[in-house]
Amino acid sequence: MSKTSKIEQAYQLACEQYAACGVDTEKAMKALRGVAVSLHCWQGDDVGGFENAGMDLGGGLAVTGNYPGKARTANELRADLDMALSVIPGKHRLNLHSIYAENSGKKVERDELGVEQFKNWIAWCKKNGMGMDFNPSFFAHPKAASGLTLSHPDKAIRNFWIEHGIRCREVGAAMGKALGKTCVTNVWIPDGMKDTPVDRKAPRERLADSLDKVFAKKINPKFNLDAIEGKLFGIGSESYVVGSHEFYLAYAVRNNKLVTLDAGHYHPTEGIADKISSVLTQIDEILLHVSRGVRWDSDHVVTLTDDLQAIAQEIVWGGYLNRVHIGLDYFDASINRVAAWVIGTRNMLKALLMAMVAPIDKLRAVEAAGDFTSRLALQEEARTLPFAAVWDYYCMKQGVPVGSAWLDEVKLYEKNVLSKRQ
Ligand code: RNT
Ligand code: ZN
User: Fold this and answer.
1) Is residue 80 included in any domain, yes or no?
2) Does residue 90 lie within any of the structural domains?
3) Among 46, 51, 133, 262, which one carries the catalytic annotation?
4) Which of the four, 16, 78, 188, 315, has the lowest number of CB atoms within 10 Å?
5) Is residue 321 over pLDDT 80?
6) Average pLDDT of the segment spanning 392-419
7) Which ligand is nearest to the CA of 97?
């Protein structure tokens, strides 16, 4: 039997087994086709960007590893993304940071950026039928060296970063307009303190004021949506983070912004899955930074953990696919960077498909009837339903490698392309 017909046969059996639990696998695959995951450009070059300012990353961001072959130019990064996307089923999005501006040799400061510096990225996305998301970059810059940006006590420094934020929203709107797909522009700042501050209030009041200025201009929400990302602690900001979760949650509710939930930004045992329905009762849309913290906000490659499955279940079972923007946020320089994109993105999609083929109607019914014995029993039985057969079939139908076959392609790319970069 050919490999194709084996995959088809396994799928047919799985399809019947799912149907017996009241699950329509065709419907699930159709739903998955409609999900775009935002691939973070910064996995491709260790959050380097192309400013060549010779600055440390800073801001509490830390990338470890020195695996050879990282992208050194925008063209290399796009080629690497092309490679990754060719083995990921579905149509996805690009999440770009402003430090990936292409300045064609001249110095363009962050408070001078405009859409001009991103036209190659927009053209690349257009060619691929992808939407874009965007991020101002408040780190790896002399004016962020103190660890403070939008909350800095010096007005001139604050104003520099405010102008950066204003320009990035305009760039985001231009991206959304050019591609006909709404851009989410996400503000994350590193501001915080290593040791216990005595004044927690003033920096937060300054940040609120700076955000008001960044967001002052009304932008058509069809083109750009603003998101704000909080955090519990960072390296060098262990004792105090100005933009805490509560700060941004409150700001978002009052100012009609999206809140970004990054899976690595809470206490180590605190997941973000439970926050999704909590926040979405009061906020229209949210952005996720799907990540994997190991003991701290380490930004490991996303794996198919219970945490990831819980996130996907909340999105799918809550009917939130049109209100949750799914982005990835991790950076691992210790393995092939293209493989890192592929592993994390395929895992995100697997988790979503798993949630889509779960016997949720049955589970809901027993829960509603107060039969928690059946709920637990069926939840556990659902774990071993033949999900893999559906996933393989989906990959085949989407024209991407099935199982680990994608790795052969990435290895070949490493041999032919990545290993030649010095
Ligand atoms: C940092 C935040 C932020 C960054 C990116 C590079 O802790 O998670 O989202 O990872 O902006
Ligand atoms: Zn993040």
Assistant:
1) yes
2) yes
3) 262
4) 16
5) yes
6) 98
7) 1
Ligand 1 atom showing the smallest separation from residue 260 Cα: 9
CA distance 144 to 151: 11
Q: Is residue 419 part of a domain?
A: no
Residue nearest to atom 10 of ligand 1 (CA): 329
pTM for the complete prediction?
0.98
- What pLDDT band is residue 55 in, cutting at 50, 70 and 90? confident
Average pLDDT over residues 60-81: 96
In a domain, 245, yes or no: yes
Please give the number of the atom of ligand 1 that sits closest to the Cα of 47. 6
Among 47, 96, 229, 332, name the best residue to mutate to test ligand 1's pocket (greatest count of ligand atoms within 8 A of Cβ): 229
**Ligand 1: centre distance to CA 173 (Å):** 21
Q: Residues 6 or more apart from 406 whose CB is under 8 A from it?
A: 87, 342, 346, 400
Helix axes 337-356, 306-317, angle to 10 degrees: 50
Q: State the closest ligand 1 atom to the C-alpha of 262, by its place in the atom list counted from 1.
A: 8
Q: What CATH number is given to the structural domain containing 99? A: 3.20.20.150
Domain that includes residue 176, residue range: 35-357
**Dihedral through CA 198, CA 202, CA 207, CA 210, nearest 10?**
-150
Angle at 225 between CA 267 and CA 331, to 5 degrees: 45
Q: 186-219 burial by CB neighbour count: b if 16+ within 10 A, else e?
A: bbbbbbbbeeeeeeeeebbebbbebbebbbeeeb
Length of the chain: 422
Residue nearest to atom 9 of ligand 1 (CA): 188
Residue in 40, 45, 47, 61 to alter for ligand 1 test, most ligand atoms within 8 A of Cβ: 61
